[in-house]
Protein backbone atom coordinates (compact mmCIF):
# COMPACT_ATOMS: atom_id res chain seq x y z
CA UNK A 1 0.00 0.00 0.00
CA UNK A 2 1.29 3.46 -0.96
CA UNK A 3 1.82 5.84 2.00
CA UNK A 4 1.69 9.62 1.63
CA UNK A 5 2.74 11.69 4.63
CA UNK A 6 1.84 15.35 4.91
CA UNK A 7 3.70 17.49 7.47
CA UNK A 8 1.55 20.47 8.42
CA UNK A 9 -2.18 20.70 9.07
CA UNK A 10 -3.21 24.31 8.50
CA UNK A 11 -4.11 25.15 4.88
CA UNK A 12 -1.82 23.59 2.26
CA UNK A 13 -1.35 20.32 4.15
CA UNK A 14 -5.01 19.29 4.55
CA UNK A 15 -5.73 20.37 0.97
CA UNK A 16 -2.87 18.18 -0.27
CA UNK A 17 -4.06 15.25 1.84
CA UNK A 18 -7.64 15.59 0.62
CA UNK A 19 -6.56 15.76 -3.01
CA UNK A 20 -4.31 12.73 -2.62
CA UNK A 21 -7.16 10.74 -1.11
CA UNK A 22 -9.57 11.67 -3.91
CA UNK A 23 -7.09 10.39 -6.47
CA UNK A 24 -6.11 7.20 -4.65
CA UNK A 25 -8.70 5.51 -2.45
CA UNK A 26 -6.27 2.79 -1.41
CA UNK A 27 -3.32 4.93 -0.33
CA UNK A 28 -2.56 5.50 3.34
CA UNK A 29 -2.62 9.26 3.91
CA UNK A 30 -1.31 10.70 7.17
CA UNK A 31 -1.20 14.33 8.36
CA UNK A 32 1.37 15.24 11.01
CA UNK A 33 0.21 18.41 12.78
CA UNK A 34 2.10 20.16 15.58
CA UNK A 35 -0.93 22.16 16.75
CA UNK A 36 -4.03 20.73 18.41
CA UNK A 37 -6.29 22.12 15.68
CA UNK A 38 -6.57 21.35 11.97
CA UNK A 39 -7.49 23.34 8.87
CA UNK A 40 -7.59 26.64 10.70
CA UNK A 41 -8.99 29.55 8.71
CA UNK A 42 -6.16 31.82 9.81
CA UNK A 43 -7.28 34.71 7.60
CA UNK A 44 -10.41 34.79 9.75
CA UNK A 45 -8.55 35.37 13.02
CA UNK A 46 -8.91 39.20 13.01
CA UNK A 47 -12.65 38.89 12.49
CA UNK A 48 -13.03 36.46 15.36
CA UNK A 49 -11.04 38.86 17.53
CA UNK A 50 -13.19 41.76 16.33
CA UNK A 51 -16.45 40.02 17.22
CA UNK A 52 -17.78 39.60 13.70
CA UNK A 53 -18.65 36.08 14.89
CA UNK A 54 -18.37 34.45 18.31
CA UNK A 55 -18.13 30.71 17.73
CA UNK A 56 -14.46 29.72 17.63
CA UNK A 57 -15.36 26.50 15.83
CA UNK A 58 -16.34 28.52 12.78
CA UNK A 59 -12.61 28.88 12.13
CA UNK A 60 -12.33 25.09 11.88
CA UNK A 61 -15.48 24.22 9.96
CA UNK A 62 -16.27 22.97 6.51
CA UNK A 63 -18.61 25.19 4.43
CA UNK A 64 -21.46 23.08 5.80
CA UNK A 65 -20.47 23.70 9.43
CA UNK A 66 -18.71 20.43 10.33
CA UNK A 67 -15.62 20.85 12.52
CA UNK A 68 -12.52 19.46 10.81
CA UNK A 69 -10.93 17.45 13.63
CA UNK A 70 -9.10 14.10 13.51
CA UNK A 71 -12.39 12.20 13.72
CA UNK A 72 -13.77 14.13 10.76
CA UNK A 73 -10.67 13.44 8.69
CA UNK A 74 -10.78 9.74 9.43
CA UNK A 75 -14.52 9.28 8.91
CA UNK A 76 -15.07 11.62 5.97
CA UNK A 77 -11.76 11.36 4.16
CA UNK A 78 -10.05 8.23 5.48
CA UNK A 79 -7.06 10.39 6.41
CA UNK A 80 -5.22 9.84 9.68
CA UNK A 81 -4.54 13.18 11.36
CA UNK A 82 -2.00 13.01 14.16
CA UNK A 83 -2.33 16.28 16.05
CA UNK A 84 0.05 17.62 18.71
CA UNK A 85 2.72 15.65 16.93
CA UNK A 86 5.92 17.18 15.61
CA UNK A 87 7.97 15.92 12.69
CA UNK A 88 11.53 16.29 14.00
CA UNK A 89 13.63 14.70 11.26
CA UNK A 90 13.47 13.40 7.69
CA UNK A 91 15.64 10.49 6.59
CA UNK A 92 15.61 10.92 2.82
CA UNK A 93 17.81 7.90 2.10
CA UNK A 94 15.48 5.50 3.89
CA UNK A 95 12.36 7.61 3.22
CA UNK A 96 11.32 7.90 6.86
CA UNK A 97 10.00 10.68 9.09
CA UNK A 98 10.72 10.76 12.81
CA UNK A 99 7.77 12.08 14.84
CA UNK A 100 7.44 13.15 18.46
CA UNK A 101 4.16 13.10 20.38
CA UNK A 102 4.19 16.46 22.16
CA UNK A 103 1.90 15.14 24.90
CA UNK A 104 3.95 12.08 25.86
CA UNK A 105 7.40 12.83 24.42
CA UNK A 106 7.42 9.44 22.69
CA UNK A 107 8.94 9.17 19.22
CA UNK A 108 8.32 6.85 16.30
CA UNK A 109 9.28 6.52 12.65
CA UNK A 110 6.96 6.52 9.68
CA UNK A 111 8.04 5.31 6.24
CA UNK A 112 6.73 7.19 3.22
CA UNK A 113 6.45 6.75 -0.51
CA UNK A 114 5.78 10.44 -1.03
CA UNK A 115 6.22 13.28 1.44
CA UNK A 116 4.56 16.71 1.35
CA UNK A 117 5.94 19.57 3.45
CA UNK A 118 3.48 22.25 4.50
CA UNK A 119 5.35 23.60 7.51
CA UNK A 120 4.10 27.19 7.21
CA UNK A 121 5.85 30.30 8.44
CA UNK A 122 6.90 31.95 11.69
CA UNK A 123 6.14 35.58 12.59
CA UNK A 124 9.05 37.97 12.66
CA UNK A 125 9.82 39.76 15.91
CA UNK A 126 11.73 43.05 16.12
CA UNK A 127 15.29 42.45 17.44
CA UNK A 128 14.82 44.81 20.37
CA UNK A 129 14.78 44.50 24.18
CA UNK A 130 11.65 43.41 26.00
CA UNK A 131 10.07 41.00 23.54
CA UNK A 132 9.51 38.48 26.35
CA UNK A 133 7.14 40.76 28.27
CA UNK A 134 3.59 39.60 28.93
CA UNK A 135 1.21 41.51 26.69
CA UNK A 136 3.17 41.10 23.46
CA UNK A 137 1.70 38.79 20.86
CA UNK A 138 1.35 38.09 17.17
CA UNK A 139 -1.73 36.90 15.28
CA UNK A 140 -0.29 33.87 13.54
CA UNK A 141 -1.72 30.97 15.55
CA UNK A 142 -5.24 30.19 16.70
CA UNK A 143 -3.93 30.47 20.26
CA UNK A 144 -3.01 34.09 19.46
CA UNK A 145 -6.57 34.72 18.31
CA UNK A 146 -7.86 33.12 21.52
CA UNK A 147 -5.62 35.41 23.57
CA UNK A 148 -6.72 38.57 21.77
CA UNK A 149 -10.38 37.57 21.86
CA UNK A 150 -10.08 37.09 25.64
CA UNK A 151 -8.58 40.57 25.94
CA UNK A 152 -11.42 41.96 23.85
CA UNK A 153 -14.10 40.27 25.91
CA UNK A 154 -12.57 41.17 29.29
CA UNK A 155 -12.26 44.86 28.33
CA UNK A 156 -9.28 45.37 30.67
CA UNK A 157 -6.85 46.82 28.13
CA UNK A 158 -7.41 50.50 27.31
CA UNK A 159 -4.44 51.21 25.00
CA UNK A 160 -2.69 49.02 22.46
CA UNK A 161 -0.15 49.37 19.69
CA UNK A 162 -0.07 47.43 16.45
CA UNK A 163 3.47 47.16 15.11
CA UNK A 164 3.37 46.83 11.36
CA UNK A 165 0.97 48.40 8.90
CA UNK A 166 0.56 45.47 6.52
CA UNK A 167 -2.44 43.23 5.94
CA UNK A 168 -2.49 41.58 9.36
CA UNK A 169 -1.61 44.78 11.18
CA UNK A 170 -4.42 46.79 9.61
CA UNK A 171 -7.00 44.03 10.09
CA UNK A 172 -5.93 43.65 13.74
CA UNK A 173 -6.16 47.40 14.19
CA UNK A 174 -9.82 47.31 13.22
CA UNK A 175 -10.52 44.27 15.42
CA UNK A 176 -9.11 45.96 18.52
CA UNK A 177 -10.65 49.33 17.77
CA UNK A 178 -14.06 47.66 17.67
CA UNK A 179 -13.36 46.60 21.26
CA UNK A 180 -13.07 50.30 22.22
CA UNK A 181 -9.30 50.04 22.68
CA UNK A 182 -7.26 53.13 21.79
CA UNK A 183 -5.00 52.01 18.94
CA UNK A 184 -1.75 53.32 17.55
CA UNK A 185 -0.37 51.72 14.40
CA UNK A 186 3.42 51.91 14.10
CA UNK A 187 5.02 51.38 10.69
CA UNK A 188 8.73 51.92 10.11
CA UNK A 189 8.22 52.46 6.36
CA UNK A 190 6.90 55.79 5.00
CA UNK A 191 3.43 54.28 4.39
CA UNK A 192 0.94 51.66 5.47
CA UNK A 193 0.23 48.69 3.17
CA UNK A 194 3.52 48.65 1.29
CA UNK A 195 1.95 46.52 -1.46
CA UNK A 196 0.30 49.77 -2.63
CA UNK A 197 1.91 52.81 -4.19
CA UNK A 198 2.31 55.70 -1.74
CA UNK A 199 -0.64 57.83 -2.87
CA UNK A 200 -3.04 54.89 -2.71
CA UNK A 201 -1.76 53.86 0.71
CA UNK A 202 -2.19 57.45 1.89
CA UNK A 203 -5.89 57.32 1.03
CA UNK A 204 -6.13 54.26 3.27
CA UNK A 205 -4.16 55.97 6.03
CA UNK A 206 -6.50 58.96 5.90
CA UNK A 207 -9.45 56.62 6.35
CA UNK A 208 -7.77 54.81 9.26
CA UNK A 209 -7.13 58.13 10.96
CA UNK A 210 -10.80 59.08 10.48
CA UNK A 211 -11.69 56.09 12.69
CA UNK A 212 -9.88 57.62 15.69
CA UNK A 213 -6.79 55.49 15.16
CA UNK A 214 -3.36 57.12 15.49
CA UNK A 215 -0.85 56.25 12.78
CA UNK A 216 2.91 56.68 13.07
CA UNK A 217 5.06 56.06 9.99
CA UNK A 218 8.80 56.29 9.35
CA UNK A 219 9.68 55.02 12.84
CA UNK A 220 10.11 51.53 14.17
CA UNK A 221 10.10 50.12 17.70
CA UNK A 222 13.39 50.45 19.60
CA UNK A 223 12.28 48.66 22.79
CA UNK A 224 9.34 47.25 24.65
CA UNK A 225 8.99 48.76 28.13
CA UNK A 226 7.59 47.09 31.21
CA UNK A 227 7.83 46.20 34.87
CA UNK A 228 7.40 42.93 36.71
CA UNK A 229 7.38 41.08 33.43
CA UNK A 230 4.37 42.97 32.01
CA UNK A 231 4.26 45.34 29.06
CA UNK A 232 3.68 48.99 29.90
CA UNK A 233 4.74 50.75 26.73
CA UNK A 234 6.95 50.94 23.66
CA UNK A 235 9.86 53.20 22.79
CA UNK A 236 10.15 54.29 19.17
CA UNK A 237 13.35 54.74 17.20
CA UNK A 238 12.99 58.53 17.53
CA UNK A 239 12.88 58.26 21.33
CA UNK A 240 9.12 58.74 21.73
CA UNK A 241 7.52 56.54 24.39
CA UNK A 242 3.92 55.35 24.13
CA UNK A 243 2.04 53.73 26.99
CA UNK A 244 0.11 50.54 26.23
CA UNK A 245 -0.99 47.29 27.83
CA UNK A 246 -0.95 45.29 24.60
CA UNK A 247 1.32 45.12 21.57
CA UNK A 248 0.45 43.08 18.50
CA UNK A 249 3.50 42.48 16.31
CA UNK A 250 2.70 42.13 12.61
CA UNK A 251 5.96 42.73 10.76
CA UNK A 252 5.84 39.83 8.36
CA UNK A 253 6.71 36.15 8.48
CA UNK A 254 9.60 33.92 7.47
CA UNK A 255 9.25 30.43 5.96
CA UNK A 256 9.68 27.45 8.28
CA UNK A 257 12.52 25.69 6.48
CA UNK A 258 14.49 24.16 9.37
CA UNK A 259 13.17 20.62 8.88
CA UNK A 260 13.74 20.80 5.12
CA UNK A 261 17.21 22.31 5.43
CA UNK A 262 18.34 19.74 7.98
CA UNK A 263 17.20 17.04 5.55
CA UNK A 264 19.41 18.57 2.88
CA UNK A 265 16.65 20.01 0.70
CA UNK A 266 17.54 23.07 -1.33
CA UNK A 267 16.49 26.44 0.06
CA UNK A 268 15.76 29.15 -2.49
CA UNK A 269 17.09 32.66 -3.00
CA UNK A 270 14.43 34.45 -0.91
CA UNK A 271 14.53 31.97 1.96
CA UNK A 272 11.73 29.53 1.18
CA UNK A 273 11.97 25.87 0.23
CA UNK A 274 12.85 25.70 -3.45
CA UNK A 275 10.22 23.95 -5.57
CA UNK A 276 9.65 23.55 -9.28
CA UNK A 277 6.40 24.10 -11.17
CA UNK A 278 5.16 20.71 -9.91
CA UNK A 279 5.68 21.79 -6.26
CA UNK A 280 8.52 19.27 -6.17
CA UNK A 281 11.57 19.94 -4.01
CA UNK A 282 15.16 19.03 -4.85
CA UNK A 283 14.22 15.51 -3.73
CA UNK A 284 11.87 13.94 -6.32
CA UNK A 285 9.96 12.09 -3.58
CA UNK A 286 9.26 15.24 -1.54
CA UNK A 287 6.85 18.04 -2.43
CA UNK A 288 6.19 21.29 -0.58
CA UNK A 289 3.41 23.87 -0.52
CA UNK A 290 2.15 26.90 1.37
CA UNK A 291 3.96 29.54 3.37
CA UNK A 292 7.17 27.50 3.66
CA UNK A 293 8.04 27.75 -0.03
CA UNK A 294 9.01 30.39 -2.56
CA UNK A 295 7.34 30.62 -5.95
CA UNK A 296 7.69 32.52 -9.21
CA UNK A 297 6.14 35.89 -9.96
CA UNK A 298 4.36 35.31 -13.28
CA UNK A 299 5.03 38.85 -14.55
CA UNK A 300 8.68 39.38 -13.66
CA UNK A 301 9.94 35.80 -13.33
CA UNK A 302 11.48 36.66 -9.96
CA UNK A 303 11.25 34.36 -6.94
CA UNK A 304 8.94 35.63 -4.21
CA UNK A 305 7.61 34.57 -0.83
CA UNK A 306 3.82 34.86 -1.09
CA UNK A 307 2.20 33.68 2.18
CA UNK A 308 -1.45 33.92 1.18
CA UNK A 309 -4.14 31.47 2.25
CA UNK A 310 -5.65 31.09 -1.21
CA UNK A 311 -2.27 30.30 -2.78
CA UNK A 312 -1.53 27.78 -0.03
CA UNK A 313 -4.71 25.89 -0.89
CA UNK A 314 -3.97 25.95 -4.62
CA UNK A 315 -0.37 24.82 -4.09
CA UNK A 316 -1.49 22.04 -1.73
CA UNK A 317 -3.91 20.79 -4.35
CA UNK A 318 -1.11 20.61 -6.94
CA UNK A 319 1.28 18.91 -4.51
CA UNK A 320 -1.32 16.31 -3.53
CA UNK A 321 -2.13 15.43 -7.12
CA UNK A 322 1.50 15.13 -8.21
CA UNK A 323 2.41 13.08 -5.13
CA UNK A 324 -0.12 10.48 -6.32
CA UNK A 325 0.01 10.64 -10.11
CA UNK A 326 3.50 11.88 -10.74
CA UNK A 327 4.20 15.29 -12.21
CA UNK A 328 1.03 15.75 -14.22
CA UNK A 329 -0.12 19.25 -13.20
CA UNK A 330 1.76 22.52 -12.89
CA UNK A 331 1.44 25.57 -10.65
CA UNK A 332 1.97 28.70 -12.77
CA UNK A 333 3.17 30.99 -10.00
CA UNK A 334 1.61 34.14 -8.61
CA UNK A 335 0.67 37.63 -9.71
CA UNK A 336 0.44 38.50 -5.99
CA UNK A 337 -3.20 39.43 -5.65
CA UNK A 338 -4.37 40.54 -2.22
CA UNK A 339 -7.12 42.43 -0.43
CA UNK A 340 -7.93 43.53 3.10
CA UNK A 341 -10.82 45.16 4.94
CA UNK A 342 -10.11 48.47 6.67
CA UNK A 343 -13.20 49.60 8.55
CA UNK A 344 -15.61 50.77 5.81
CA UNK A 345 -12.85 50.63 3.17
CA UNK A 346 -11.17 47.82 1.34
CA UNK A 347 -7.74 47.92 -0.28
CA UNK A 348 -6.76 45.49 -3.00
CA UNK A 349 -3.87 44.93 -5.38
CA UNK A 350 -2.98 42.60 -8.20
CA UNK A 351 0.14 42.43 -10.31
CA UNK A 352 2.79 45.13 -10.13
CA UNK A 353 2.63 48.56 -8.56
CA UNK A 354 4.17 51.49 -10.41
CA UNK A 355 7.12 51.25 -8.05
CA UNK A 356 7.69 47.50 -8.51
CA UNK A 357 7.12 47.67 -12.29
CA UNK A 358 9.80 50.31 -12.71
CA UNK A 359 12.14 48.35 -10.46
CA UNK A 360 11.58 45.33 -12.70
CA UNK A 361 12.61 47.38 -15.73
CA UNK A 362 9.22 48.11 -17.30
CA UNK A 363 8.51 51.42 -19.02
CA UNK A 364 5.05 52.17 -17.68
CA UNK A 365 2.19 54.59 -17.89
CA UNK A 366 -0.33 54.95 -15.07
CA UNK A 367 -3.75 56.48 -14.52
CA UNK A 368 -5.96 57.00 -11.50
CA UNK A 369 -9.74 56.74 -11.90
CA UNK A 370 -12.38 57.60 -9.32
CA UNK A 371 -16.04 56.70 -9.71
CA UNK A 372 -18.89 54.93 -7.88
CA UNK A 373 -19.17 51.16 -8.09
CA UNK A 374 -22.84 51.49 -9.09
CA UNK A 375 -25.35 54.30 -9.62
CA UNK A 376 -25.82 56.81 -6.85
CA UNK A 377 -29.54 55.98 -6.78
CA UNK A 378 -28.52 52.42 -5.81
CA UNK A 379 -26.29 53.70 -3.02
CA UNK A 380 -23.14 53.57 -5.11
CA UNK A 381 -19.89 53.84 -3.18
CA UNK A 382 -16.55 55.28 -4.20
CA UNK A 383 -13.77 53.33 -5.88
CA UNK A 384 -10.32 54.74 -6.59
CA UNK A 385 -8.25 52.62 -8.96
CA UNK A 386 -4.67 53.06 -10.10
CA UNK A 387 -3.84 51.15 -13.27
CA UNK A 388 -0.30 50.30 -14.39
CA UNK A 389 0.36 49.28 -18.00
CA UNK A 390 3.39 48.73 -20.20
CA UNK A 391 3.75 51.90 -22.25
CA UNK A 392 4.56 50.44 -25.66
CA UNK A 393 2.25 47.42 -25.71
CA UNK A 394 -0.57 48.58 -23.43
CA UNK A 395 -0.26 45.27 -21.58
CA UNK A 396 -1.86 45.42 -18.14
CA UNK A 397 0.80 44.96 -15.46
CA UNK A 398 -1.03 45.84 -12.26
CA UNK A 399 -3.97 47.48 -10.56
CA UNK A 400 -4.70 48.86 -7.12
CA UNK A 401 -8.12 49.78 -5.81
CA UNK A 402 -9.25 51.37 -2.54
CA UNK A 403 -12.49 52.72 -1.19
CA UNK A 404 -15.82 51.72 0.35
CA UNK A 405 -17.12 50.30 -2.94
CA UNK A 406 -16.85 46.77 -4.30
CA UNK A 407 -13.06 46.60 -4.42
CA UNK A 408 -12.98 42.79 -4.55
CA UNK A 409 -14.88 42.70 -7.85
CA UNK A 410 -12.52 45.22 -9.43
CA UNK A 411 -9.36 43.46 -8.31
CA UNK A 412 -10.72 40.08 -9.43
CA UNK A 413 -11.37 41.46 -12.92
CA UNK A 414 -7.92 43.02 -13.19
CA UNK A 415 -6.33 39.82 -11.89
CA UNK A 416 -7.90 37.80 -14.68
CA UNK A 417 -6.88 40.44 -17.22
CA UNK A 418 -3.28 40.21 -16.03
CA UNK A 419 -3.37 36.41 -16.00
CA UNK A 420 -4.67 36.48 -19.56
CA UNK A 421 -1.97 38.97 -20.61
CA UNK A 422 -4.65 41.34 -21.85
CA UNK A 423 -3.99 44.87 -23.06
CA UNK A 424 -5.98 48.05 -22.53
CA UNK A 425 -7.65 47.68 -25.93
CA UNK A 426 -8.96 44.26 -24.84
CA UNK A 427 -10.79 45.86 -21.90
CA UNK A 428 -12.35 49.02 -23.38
CA UNK A 429 -15.24 47.07 -24.91
CA UNK A 430 -15.46 44.28 -22.36
CA UNK A 431 -18.86 42.61 -22.23
CA UNK A 432 -19.67 42.53 -18.51
CA UNK A 433 -22.98 41.97 -16.74
CA UNK A 434 -24.89 45.17 -16.03
CA UNK A 435 -27.87 46.09 -13.91
CA UNK A 436 -28.07 49.11 -11.58
CA UNK A 437 -27.95 47.09 -8.34
CA UNK A 438 -24.53 45.77 -9.38
CA UNK A 439 -22.63 48.26 -11.51
CA UNK A 440 -22.64 51.36 -13.65
CA UNK A 441 -23.61 50.98 -17.30
CA UNK A 442 -19.91 51.35 -18.02
CA UNK A 443 -18.35 49.50 -15.14
CA UNK A 444 -15.58 51.17 -13.16
CA UNK A 445 -13.26 48.49 -14.56
CA UNK A 446 -14.02 49.45 -18.16
CA UNK A 447 -14.06 53.19 -17.39
CA UNK A 448 -10.54 52.90 -15.96
CA UNK A 449 -9.43 51.31 -19.23
CA UNK A 450 -11.11 54.19 -21.12
CA UNK A 451 -9.16 56.74 -19.12
CA UNK A 452 -5.95 54.85 -19.83
CA UNK A 453 -6.81 54.62 -23.53
CA UNK A 454 -7.34 58.38 -23.66
CA UNK A 455 -4.02 58.97 -21.95
CA UNK A 456 -2.08 56.58 -24.21
CA UNK A 457 -3.62 58.20 -27.31
CA UNK A 458 -2.80 61.64 -25.90
CA UNK A 459 -6.45 62.63 -25.83
CA UNK A 460 -6.04 63.39 -22.15
CA UNK A 461 -2.90 64.78 -20.58
CA UNK A 462 -3.19 63.42 -17.08
CA UNK A 463 -1.34 64.23 -13.90
CA UNK A 464 -1.66 62.25 -10.70
CA UNK A 465 -2.34 64.13 -7.48
CA UNK A 466 1.27 63.49 -6.42
CA UNK A 467 2.57 64.97 -9.67
CA UNK A 468 0.43 68.07 -9.15
CA UNK A 469 1.72 68.44 -5.59
CA UNK A 470 5.32 67.96 -6.70
CA UNK A 471 4.92 70.73 -9.29
CA UNK A 472 3.41 73.04 -6.67
CA UNK A 473 6.20 72.32 -4.18
CA UNK A 474 8.79 72.99 -6.90
CA UNK A 475 7.26 76.40 -7.56
CA UNK A 476 5.98 75.57 -11.05
CA UNK A 477 3.34 78.19 -11.96
CA UNK A 478 0.02 76.37 -12.31
CA UNK A 479 -3.45 77.70 -13.00
CA UNK A 480 -5.56 75.26 -11.04
CA UNK A 481 -9.16 75.09 -12.16
CA UNK A 482 -11.91 73.50 -10.06
CA UNK A 483 -14.89 73.06 -12.35
CA UNK A 484 -17.43 71.76 -9.81
CA UNK A 485 -20.43 73.84 -8.76
CA UNK A 486 -20.46 76.33 -5.89
CA UNK A 487 -22.29 74.01 -3.48
CA UNK A 488 -19.67 71.29 -3.95
CA UNK A 489 -16.90 73.85 -3.56
CA UNK A 490 -18.29 75.10 -0.26
CA UNK A 491 -18.74 71.63 1.16
CA UNK A 492 -15.28 70.29 0.23
CA UNK A 493 -12.24 71.94 -1.33
CA UNK A 494 -8.50 71.51 -1.54
CA UNK A 495 -7.33 75.04 -0.71
CA UNK A 496 -4.32 74.99 -3.03
CA UNK A 497 -5.03 78.28 -4.80
CA UNK A 498 -7.63 76.81 -7.12
CA UNK A 499 -10.07 78.97 -9.11
CA UNK A 500 -13.72 77.89 -9.21
CA UNK A 501 -15.41 78.01 -12.60
CA UNK A 502 -18.24 75.46 -12.91
CA UNK A 503 -18.21 73.43 -16.12
CA UNK A 504 -21.58 74.83 -17.18
CA UNK A 505 -20.20 78.35 -17.04
CA UNK A 506 -16.75 77.65 -18.48
CA UNK A 507 -17.40 78.60 -22.14
CA UNK A 508 -18.72 82.06 -21.23
CA UNK A 509 -15.97 82.73 -18.67
CA UNK A 510 -12.93 81.91 -20.77
CA UNK A 511 -11.79 85.51 -20.26
CA UNK A 512 -10.93 84.58 -16.64
CA UNK A 513 -8.27 82.11 -17.78
CA UNK A 514 -4.64 83.02 -18.48
CA UNK A 515 -4.16 85.01 -21.68
CA UNK A 516 -0.98 83.03 -22.32
CA UNK A 517 -2.19 80.00 -24.29
CA UNK A 518 0.97 78.11 -23.20
CA UNK A 519 0.20 78.49 -19.50
CA UNK A 520 -0.07 75.17 -17.64
CA UNK A 521 -3.66 74.67 -16.56
CA UNK A 522 -4.76 71.80 -14.31
CA UNK A 523 -8.47 70.92 -14.31
CA UNK A 524 -10.29 68.75 -11.83
CA UNK A 525 -13.67 68.04 -10.26
CA UNK A 526 -14.82 65.48 -7.70
CA UNK A 527 -13.68 62.51 -9.81
CA UNK A 528 -12.29 64.44 -12.85
CA UNK A 529 -14.84 63.37 -15.43
CA UNK A 530 -15.89 67.01 -15.67
CA UNK A 531 -12.23 67.90 -15.41
CA UNK A 532 -11.56 65.95 -18.60
CA UNK A 533 -14.48 67.63 -20.36
CA UNK A 534 -13.22 71.04 -19.24
CA UNK A 535 -9.77 70.27 -20.62
CA UNK A 536 -11.29 69.46 -24.02
CA UNK A 537 -13.16 72.78 -24.00
CA UNK A 538 -9.97 74.69 -23.24
CA UNK A 539 -7.96 72.85 -25.87
CA UNK A 540 -10.67 73.59 -28.45
CA UNK A 541 -10.30 77.27 -27.56
CA UNK A 542 -6.56 77.40 -28.10
CA UNK A 543 -4.96 76.52 -24.78
CA UNK A 544 -2.32 73.89 -25.48
CA UNK A 545 -0.91 72.93 -22.06
CA UNK A 546 -4.02 71.70 -20.27
CA UNK A 547 -3.78 68.81 -17.82
CA UNK A 548 -6.37 66.78 -15.92
CA UNK A 549 -5.75 65.84 -12.29
CA UNK A 550 -6.59 62.15 -12.38
CA UNK A 551 -9.17 60.93 -9.90
CA UNK A 552 -10.14 64.45 -8.82
CA UNK A 553 -10.60 65.47 -5.23
CA UNK A 554 -11.44 61.90 -4.20
CA UNK A 555 -7.94 60.75 -5.14
CA UNK A 556 -6.19 63.67 -3.40
CA UNK A 557 -4.08 62.05 -0.64
CA UNK A 558 -3.00 65.26 1.09
CA UNK A 559 -4.73 67.55 3.56
CA UNK A 560 -7.71 69.55 2.32
CA UNK A 561 -8.86 72.99 3.33
CA UNK A 562 -12.26 71.53 4.17
Structural overview:
With 562 residues, the chain is of the alpha/beta class. The protein has four domains: 3-121 and 254-325, FAD/NAD(P)-binding domain, CATH 3.50.50; 136-251, 3-Layer(bba) Sandwich (FAD/NAD(P)-binding domain); 344-456, 3-Layer(bba) Sandwich (FAD/NAD(P)-binding domain), CATH 3.50.50.60; 462-555, Rhodanese-like domain (Oxidized Rhodanese, domain 1), CATH 3.40.250. Helices cover 26% and strands 26% of the residues. The protein is built from 15 helices and 31 strands. A five-stranded parallel sheet has the order 3-2-1-7-19. Helix 1 (12-23) links the parallel strand 1 (3-7) and strand 2 (28-32). Helix 1 runs parallel beside helix 8. The longest helix is centred in the middle third of the chain and has 17 residues, at 309-325. The N and C termini lie far apart (73 Å).
Largest sheet: 5 strands, parallel
State the end-to-end CA separation: 73 Å
CATH A-level architecture of the largest domain: 3-Layer(bba) Sandwich
What is the tally of helical segments? 15
| Uncertain segments | none
Total domains: 4
Tally of DSSP β-strands: 31
Instruction: Output the CATH class name of the largest domain.
Output: Alpha Beta
**Order of strands side by side in the largest beta sheet?**
3-2-1-7-19
Net shape = globular
According to CATH, the homologous superfamily of the largest domain is FAD/NAD(P)-binding domain
Whole-number mean pLDDT: 97
Oligomer: single chain
Amino acid sequence: MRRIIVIGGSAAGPKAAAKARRLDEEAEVIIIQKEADLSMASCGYPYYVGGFFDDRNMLLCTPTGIVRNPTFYMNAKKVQARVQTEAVAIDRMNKKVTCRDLRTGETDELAYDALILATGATPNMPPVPGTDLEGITTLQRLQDADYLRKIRDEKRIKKAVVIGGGLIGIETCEALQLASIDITVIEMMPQLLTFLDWEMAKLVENHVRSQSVDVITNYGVAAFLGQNGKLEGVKLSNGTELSCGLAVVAVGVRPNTKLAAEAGLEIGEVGGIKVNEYMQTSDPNIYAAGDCIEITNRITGAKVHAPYGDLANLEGRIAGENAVLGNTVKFPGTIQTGICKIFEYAAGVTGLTERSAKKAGFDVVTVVNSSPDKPIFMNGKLLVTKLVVEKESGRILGAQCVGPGDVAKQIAQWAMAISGKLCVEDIVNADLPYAPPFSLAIDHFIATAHVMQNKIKNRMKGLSATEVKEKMDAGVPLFILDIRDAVEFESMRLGIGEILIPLGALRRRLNELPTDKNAEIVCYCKISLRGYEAALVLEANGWNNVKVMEGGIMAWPYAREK
